[in-house]
Write a structure and sequence with these properties.
By secondary structure, this protein is an alpha/beta fold.
């Protein structure tokens, strides 16, 4: 089993290789695929956004079997995401969960737009995503940030990551128990679409 600090360092090093254009991981060859058919032991769980520009395995320069990736628009936390994290943490002994947001997140921007100009005919499925992001945006609309859309979205992205990370830390008896007794760690991070860098800013120190 790989402990949380070691797993976090692996992710940092992989992201540095990605930024430098020195990625060394191939996503998998036939032999490795065959080895993994019998089981998996991912060293980190990544709850990330579905955005096509933020594939966790590439961003962190990891291969088949290394990461247990949960992707959903806005990297929100609902029951299915919590259950997926619980499954990996319990079944595979994975001791690091990273909530990975990213700059210019479309789900966050859509939430800002919805709060400013509500739509009457929005799909209930899309609304369920907006409603999860909403608490991270509403308070910011009461500050000076409301006058600067880009700054508002930037702060909202981070607020949303923190909210999701806190939900995982405190919204699951299974994960809470693993945090208290087994060294499970939940951290929040933001990927920059512009630079490729992942900044770990919540729970990483």
């Amino acid at each position: 089993m790989i402990d949380a600090p070691t797993a976090l360092q692996r992710l940092r090093e992989g992201n540095c290789r990605f930024i430098a254009g020195a990625s060394r991981t191939t996503l998998g060859n036939r032999l490795h695929r065959g080895e993994l058919a019998g089981g998996q032991a991912p060293f980190a769980i990544i709850l990330g956004c579905s955005d096509s520009r933020v594939p966790a395995e590439i961003v962190f320069d990891q291969g088949l079997g290394d990461l247990f990736v949960i992707r959903v628009a806005g990297n929100i936390v609902a029951s299915s995401q919590v259950g997926s994290a619980e499954f990996a943490a319990e079944r595979f002994g994975t001791r690091l969960i990273v909530v990975l947001g990213h700059s210019r997140c479309g789900a966050v921007s859509a939430t800002v737009e919805e709060l400013r100009r509500p739509r009457e005919n929005q799909s209930p499925n899309l609304r369920s995503i907006v409603d999860r992001v909403r608490p991270s945006v509403e308070a910011l609309l009461e500050t000076e940030l409301r006058h600067d859309h880009d700054a508002l979205v930037h702060h909202a992205v981070r607020s949303n990551v923190r909210a999701s990370a806190n939900h995982l830390r405190h919204g699951s008896a299974v994960l809470e128990g693993l945090i208290e007794r087994e060294g499970l760690r939940v951290v929040g991070a933001e990927y920059s679409l512009e630079t490729g860098m992942v900044e770990f800013f919540d729970g990483a120190s």
